[in-house]
Amino acid sequence: MADTSPDNIPFAISAYTPERLRGALRQMYLIRKFEEGAEDSYTRGLIHGTMHLSIGQEASAVGACIGLSETDKITSTHRGHGHSIAKGADVGRMFAEFFGKETGYCKGRGGSMHIADVGKGNLGANGIVGGGLPIAVGAALSAKRLETGAVTVCFFGDGANNEGAFHEALNMAAIWKLPVIFLCENNKYGMSMSTDRSTAVASIADRAVAYAMAGASVDGNDFSAVSEASEAAIARARAGEGPSLIEAVTYRWRGHSKSDRNRYRSKEEIAEWMACDPIPRMVQMLSDHGIIGAGDAARIEAEAEAEIVQGIAFAKESPAPALSDVTRDVYTKPAA
Amino acid sequence: MNVAADIEARELSYAEAIREAMDVALASDERVILMGEDIGVYGGAFQVTGDLIDTYGPDRVIDTPISELGGAGVAVGAALTGLRPIFEFQFSDFATLAMEQIVNQAAKVRYMLGGAVSVPVVMRFPAGSGTGAAAQHSQSLEAWFAHVPGLKVVQPSTPHDAKGLLLAALEDPDPVMIFEHKLLYKMRGAVPEGHYTVPIGKAEIRREGVDVSIVATSIMVHKVLEAAEMLAGEGIEAEVIDLRTVRPLDRETVLASVRKTSRLVCVYEAVKTLGIGAEISAMVAESDAFDYLDAPIVRLGGAECPIPYNPELEKAAVPQVEDIIEAVRAQVKGRL
Fold it and tell me: Which CATH topology does B11-192 take?
């Protein structure tokens, strides 16, 4: 029997309605099923190119976005499918993009690494490590200048924390007190290089000190912990108190991309992290506190699965782009 | 350009004309902001922004830290989310630090996202040699940028065009790179008051002639005009075309001139090899205008070396009036 005395109620349980919590679980399942569906589609030859799967990282994407509205922005990364779904993207249009179809989010021009959903505030994934960091600061500058009240969550990985763009972006966000949350999903490896080898500080959150901003390191596989740190950062941003840096410590179950042979980490390490699967932990928390009953999790999972099946079918049936349109949309206003 | 504005034309320096364009834009559009290093109370390294901060304040005339990559990226992010930033590089050479944001992000975001967004950012690059600042503060890198679909690249040669092209760039929904030759900043010329635009993608015939077409960019336009006057004394009438926009090229103006004169000379300060002259030459060679040519095409460009410090070497590294006279004379008199 779980301890449900007031002192031990997780943040998320006290902060969100049961409906939102069930919605968050649904999104986590949707991300997991999406990634599995993407992997399966790749194996079947339906996807051109590569992809970067976020299986195992569902709690950080959903926990960081639960406090955002559609007017709030995110910038995302090459491992960004989860972020898109957490910000409300339609999985059918995402699959259509993977399959290179005209109905995809980028009309088949972007693929996995450039999915964006501007209407929902997702300014896009990015193929360049650290590429989204200055852009997120620019979005926050717009919000401040135009007084929209919007905040921007900037997702990046541990690899990006050693890019020059990281330093420049965090410093500018801090000197201008901009409403941006830097959310580092530390999944332990930048491709093959572990953070132990790549990064001089033990915790990436320690780098917040250098920019005089709030920094927190949380269990990235604990939805409640991520949402608690994110809500605090969002509140600071909305109050005009400037940026925050959150490190969500997590792990990617799959390799960096489809070419990864996993030579740099052990089977034991992967198994250890798979035992910390964020989804059963979320299910446990919700059932401990009576948010879901027996059979609810299985039902939500099945619904997510069905949505994925439907999304893949939509993508498969969608039309391919016309070859004559190859140079369309290079410019908004082409030469006269 | 309207006639009323023309009547009110008075003389301004090239730098003053750019400042006036920014003033007009800042006054009429709240979304316009200036960003760059030392553009505030310092007034910009070349005093182009001058005292604009006194009128518009530090929230719209924003001094950035010495962070070219981050600063350019913030401008891109701000442009994506509703602002109209004008980003000043202190020297065009420093854009090398920001190529990621310019080439991978600003130029490609629209296309990668299937046309879902535009990036209305303007970037200003003080460029060129002649100031004794040596190899890292004297380059002419415009061809690099002109090689990237998604960017527009202009090189105004007069105060009139500097103002009109900047105002046109601000009205353009796509990223526009403006290369300003540092030696032109003090040049004076007629500049209409108020708002007017010079069309991007349109060359200007600065001098009509029948014996040879000389296509020049930026400061070379003035050297070519000087050479043309000398050549006229020898009975050679050169047609001088100020390219003004490097991407997109004004194909028709160049081809029509070559059909008329049957000779083509290209003069530009950037390193000769693989530069704008090569593109213009190929454009003519691939067209019907090729049939009109009576002599081999001649390119005059920068020497195949970095810009040297010694003033005589520095002059020797870029085309001078005498070089132009000699080359045209040889071409027209059939000595090639």
Answer: Rossmann fold (3.40.50)
